[in-house]
Amino acid sequence: MADADGAEALEADLVVIGGGLAAQRAALEVTRLGGSVLMLEKMEAVGGSSVMSGGSFAFAGTPQQREAGIKDSEERLRDDLITVGGGRNDPALVDVLVRGQLAEYELLREAGIVFKPVQSSSGQSVPRTHSTNPREVLETLHRMVVAMPDFALRLRTAATRLRRGTDGRFEAVEAEDAATGRRLLCRARRGILLASGGFSRGEDLLELFAPETRKAVRGGGAGNAGDGIRLAWEHGAALADMGYVKGTFGAWPEEIPGEAHTILLAVYRGAIAVNLAAKRFANESWSYKKLGAACLEQPRARAFQIFDETIMAQAVEGIPTFDFHAVQRKGRLVSAPTLGDLANRLGLDAGVLATTVATYNADIERHGEDRSFGRKHLSHTFGTPTSIARGPFHAYPCSTVINSTYAGLRVRADMTVLDIRGAPMDGLYAAGEVTGGFHGEAYMTGSSLVKALVCGGVAARAALGSNA
Fold first, then answer.
1. Which backbone phi and psi does 231 adopt, to 5 degrees?
2. N or C: which end of the chain has fewer CB within 10 A?
3. Are 128 and 122 in contact (CB under 8 A)?
4. 3-state SS string for 300-360
5. ∠224-255-250 over CA atoms, to 5°?
6. How is 49-114 classified by DSSP, letter by letter?
7. 451 in Cβ contact with 57 (< 8 Å)
C-alpha cells in the first residue's frame, strides 16, 4: 500500500530504529504484551555493536555470585555506578538499571544463556561480570522475537526523518530501502523507539564532541554513525554526557578488517601500563575509559601492558579481556625470559623498564600501594596488586579504541526523550547506547549491555502503557 506522497505505507504499534540488544529486548516486550513491532535496521543484518562487544554483563545479587561466595547487592551496584561516574550520572536512570537488572539476568537464564564464572573488572568493588557470547544472546532474543506473530523486520532500511502530528506527538518514521531505493512511511500507533547505537563511526560528531579521540583507533558497529541522535536532535532533543565520551584502553593498536577489536585488560589482573619511554603514566586500577584517555596523551598514543608469569596464570579462557592465551595464539603477545630481553623485543630502553618495574615492586611490597600513582587495587576497589617478578615476562602492545560512546539523548526514567527545555517528547523513546545520562564521567564494565536489556523493556512498557 502506498501513502499519498508515493511512499510505501507500513504501520505498527511500535516502530523500532535499530537492531541491537536494546531493540531486540524492546521488540520482545512489546510482542509479549500483545502489541506489534516494525524494526528498521539499516545494515544487512541485526546486531550492531552489541555483537562486537566483549559479552560482559554486570549483574548484582545473582545465584552465581552467591555460589562463589561473592556478596553483592543492588545498593553496592548503585554505589559503584555513581562512584565510577563521578556523581555525574542521572540518579533516576541509575535506579532504573539497578532495579531491573536481576529480572534481565533471569530472562536470559530462562532463555538458555549460560554465563561463565563471575569475574572482577573495571569499576567493580566486587566481582560481578557475567560473561557470555554476545552474539548468542542477540540471536537468542531475535529468534524469540521473530517467532512472534506481530513482528516485522526490514533490513537495509535506514530511517531518514521523524514525523510529528499536529498535536506534536511523534507518529511516523520516514525511511528508505537501500535495496530498492523506495521510500517508506512507517506509522507508529503507540510510539517510536530509537535504539540505533552510538556514534563511534560518526566522525563529524566525534570531532564536535570528543576531538581528543582523534588519535584513537576506530571501532564499533559499522553503522554506528549517530543516526538516532541526529533524528531526534533535529526536533530539539536534549543531549547528555557528550563531554565524557572516551575511548577504551587495551585495544590492539591497528584496525583489522572484518575482526572485532581485541581488547586485553591484564592491568586488572596486576599488569602495569608503560609508554614508549618505558614509564608508567596512570593508576592501572582506573576505569578503562580513564586509562584510555591517559593513553591518548602518550607518544603515538601507544602503551604496553607489562606482566609476569604469575599474572599470565590467571588467564580465563573464553573471556576476551582476560584470555591471554588466545591473544598469544594470534601472535599479539610479546614474551621473553627476562625484563631486559622483553624491553629489547619491544624497542624500549631496558634500563628504564627495569627501574620502572623495580620501583613499582618495591612500593607494592613495602607499602602495599604504588606511591607514584596511588594504585592500591587491581580494579576500582577490588583486589591487591602483586610484584611483577616471575619470568617469563609478557607485554601486550595496545592503544585506545573508540568503539562505544555512551552518550546521547537525554531521557527520563521511562525512556521518553526530553527536549532542550526538559519537556517530554510525546511518543518518542530511546534505549541503549543512543542515550546519555546513565554512565557519567566513566564506565563500569558490563553496565552497557545490562542497560540495553533493562531500558529496552522499560521503553516498550512505557509505549504500550503497561506497568507489567
1. -60, -45
2. N
3. no
4. HHCEEEEECHHHHCCCCCCCHHHCHHHHHHCCCCEEECCHHHHHHHHCCCHHHHHHHHHHH
5. 90
6. TGGGS--EEE--S-HHHHHTT----HHHHHHHHHHHTTT-S-HHHHHHHHHHHHHHHHHHHHTT--
7. no
Dihedral of the alpha carbons of 436, 438, 439, 443, in degrees to the nearest 10:
-110
Measured distance CA(155)–CA(148) in Å, rounded: 18
- Residues whose CB is less than 8 angstroms from the CB of residue 130 and which lie 6 or more positions away in sequence, other chains included: 56, 57, 58, 59, 62, 64, 105, 115, 116, 118, 446
Q: For residue 314, which phi and psi values (nearest 5 degrees)?
A: -90, 10
Q: Angle CA(18)–CA(154)–CA(170) in degrees, nearest 5?
A: 60
3-state SS of the chain: helix, strand, coil percent to 5? 35, 20, 45
CATH class of 8-244+404-463: alpha beta
3 state DSSP class of 459: helix
Cell numbers for 236: 530539539
Three-state DSSP at 430 gives strand
C-alpha cell read off for 140: 537468542
- Which residues neighbour 256 within 8 Å (Cβ) at sequence distance 6 or greater? none
User: Measured between alpha carbons, how far is 94 from 411 in angstroms, rounded to an integer?
Assistant: 12
CB neighbours (10 Å) of residue 110? 8
Burial-class residue 2 by CB neighbours within 10 Å (0-12, 13-18, 19+). Answer: exposed
Residue spans of the chain under pLDDT 50: none
Tell me which long-range contacts 85-89 makes (C-beta under 8 A, separation of at least 24): 85/439, 85/440, 85/441, 85/442, 86/440, 86/441, 86/442, 87/440, 88/241, 88/244, 88/440, 88/441, 89/437, 89/438, 89/439, 89/440
pLDDT at 52: 81
Question: Given the C-alpha cell 629489547, which residue does it identify?
Answer: 344
pLDDT digits (tens, 9 = 90+) for 319-336: 889 999 999 999 999 999
**Distances from the Cα of 456 to the Cαs of 41, 139, 389, 462, in angstroms?**
16, 16, 47, 10
- State if pTM tops 0.85: yes
- The domain ranges of the chain are 8-244+404-463, 248-402
Strand 183-194 to 303-307 pairing: unpaired
Alpha carbons 161 and 228: distance in angstroms, whole number? 10
CA angle 79, 402, 250 (to 5 degrees): 75
For residues 344 and 356, give the distance between their C-alpha atoms in angstroms, rounded to a whole number: 15
CA 322/CA 447 separation, integer angstroms: 18
What is the Cα–Cα distance from 147 to 145, expressed in whole angstroms?
A: 5
DSSP 19-34: -SHHHHHHHHHHHHTT
* CA distances (Å), origin 217, targets 75, 123, 347: 36, 23, 22
Which pLDDT score is estimated for 186? 98
Residue that is written with C-alpha cell 617478578 in the block: 389
